[in-house]
Each structure stands twice: as structure tokens, then as C-alpha cells.
Amino acid sequence: MVIAIDGPAGSGKSTLSKILAKKLGFVYLDTGAMYRALTLKVLNEKVSLDDESGMIRLAKDLDFKYGRDNRVFLDGKDVTENIRTPEIEKAISKVCGIPKVREYLVALQRKIAGSVSCVTEGRDTTTVVFPRAEAKVFLDASVDERARRRLLDFQKKNIAIDLETVKKELRRRDLADCSRSVGALKKAPDAFVLDTTGLTIEQVAEKIYSLVKQ
Prior knowledge:
By secondary structure, the protein is an alpha/beta fold. Helix 2 (31-44) packs across helix 4 (86-96) and helix 3 (52-60) packs parallel to helix 5. It is built from 9 helices and 8 strands. The chain has a single domain, classed as Rossmann fold, CATH 3.40.50.300. Strand 4 and strand 5 form a beta hairpin. The two termini are 13 Å apart.
């Protein structure tokens, strides 16, 4: 079984997916982590964000793996924290917008999900990656709420950044995610839409868990 969750940055997809996967005994498939890991590799290799062929080359041979406790490995190294920084947030839209890059990573995501029951999340998970998922959810929240959550995440990692900068970056990311030519952020017609503004992650998880059980 595949449970696919879409929504904009900061809507709570990752946290919810981890809780839901654990509750159901499913694998958590973080599609966004793949794009983040690739973005990190692009920056580490000093490939220009305007060099599409360079980024496609890195995507084709991406050495990416999930480890225990949702750890993320790139080229054999744990990069779980490295892929959640403002630098990655700024650059990732450029990487995500390349059709061939998405083609390679979507194939990898489908391969992983082909052998296990999983909870997976991203920007186009319900519309492009897993259009036949048994359960589809679109999470949303106000930009103020999403910025507050993202700022808390950065503060926990001792990353210095202010709320207005986070909010500005989220708006820029929303525009890029919704307007790119492939893998754009959209609400699937058959997705359950839930606004998480003002809700705790436990309340959201219980609502989605009930939906999945139905």
C-alpha cells in the first residue's frame, strides 16, 4: 500500500509521514530528501545551478540510501542534518525544476515503493510519482504558520535566521513549486485536503490515520 502526501514547504508533511509510517508499521519514503541530497551534491561539487547537464549527470549516478531511524546517506555519508539548511532551501528549486533530474529520481522512488508498503511525501507525490496511491492527502497551512514551524526547525539546529527571511523564502519556494513545468505542486482531484493551521501534529496524524483505515 502507498499513502501519498503532498503540500507546500512547512505544511507538516515530513513530521506527519514519519509518525504515520511508525503507527502503521510502514516504511517512510522521503522523496524530498532525495532532491535535497542531490542539491547538496550539486553545491559540494560546485556545479552551477544554471548547468542543467551537470546536474543531470549527478542525478543519474546519485548514490543515495535511507538508513535506520530515517537517516539519509549520500555517497555513504550521513547527511541527514546537512540537507536541512537555508543554503539547500535556496538552491533546491533550481534542481527540482529539471525534467530529466525528476525522471531519474522518480524512477528510484517507484522502485523503492514497489516492494514495500510506505508513507511517502513531496510536492508532486499524489499527482506524478504515485498517481495510483491507495490514499492521497494534500496538507496545507498559512504561510505564517509554515514560517513559524520552519523557524523552530532552524532554531533547534542552532541555525541563525529570522522569521521574515524564512517567510520570504517560503513564498519564493511556493511560487517556484507551483509554476515549474514538471512536477508542479497541485492538488490531486481525489486527494483528501487538510488545512493544518492551528492543529497539533498529533491531531493531524489521527485524522489521516482514520482516513487510511477507512
